[in-house]
Amino acid sequence: MNRVILIKYGELTTKKGNRKIFINTLYSNILKKLKDLDVNISKDMSRMYIEYDSTNQEIILKKIGEIFGIHAFSIAYKTETNIDALKEMLNLVLKENLDLEKNYTFKVETKRSDKSFSPNSLECNYIFGEHILKNFPNLKVNVHDYQVLVNVEIRKDYSYIYLNEYTGLGGYPVGTLGHGLLMLSGGIDSPVAGYLAIKRGIKLNLVYFEAIPHTSLEARNKVIELAKKLAIYGGDMKLIVVPFTKLQEEIYKKVPGNYSITIMRRMMYRIMEKLTKRFKALAIINGESVGQVASQTLTSMNVINSVTNIPVIRPVACLDKLEIIEISKKIDTYDISILPYEDCCTIFVPKHPIINPNLNQCLEMEKELDYETLIAEILDNLLVINISSSMENIYEDIL
Ligand code: ATP
Ligand code: MG
Question: Which residue spans within the chain are E strands per DSSP?
Answer without folding.
Answer: 3-9, 40-43, 47-51, 70-80, 104-112, 139-141, 148-154, 158-162, 166-170, 179-183, 203-210, 237-243, 283-285, 312-313, 383-387
